[in-house]
Backbone:
């Protein structure tokens, strides 16, 4: 009985994960994250501390959003 309950619970969690992926559009967030990382690796960005700060904040926010979904 416990094993069946666990299987059912796992299936429910899988459905919730799929829902979260749709809500947060994980693929879009990954693309955005990649673009931010490219911009941060550009030499031009380092002349603007405010821009670096904003990009790093955006990067952190996206990582915090997708990390629980992917794990």
Residues:
């Amino acid at each position: 009985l416990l094993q069946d309950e666990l299987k059912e619970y796992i299936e429910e969690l899988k459905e919730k994960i799929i829902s979260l992926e749709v809500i947060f559009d994980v693929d879009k967030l990954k693309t955005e994250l990649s673009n931010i990382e490219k911009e941060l690796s550009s030499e031009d960005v380092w002349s603007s501390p405010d821009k670096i700060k904003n990009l790093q904040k955006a990067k952190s926010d996206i990582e915090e959003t997708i990390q629980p979904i992917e794990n």
In short: The CA atoms of residues 8 and 22 lie 22 Å apart. The helical segments are 2-24, 26-40, 49-70. The two ends are 27 Å apart (CA to CA).
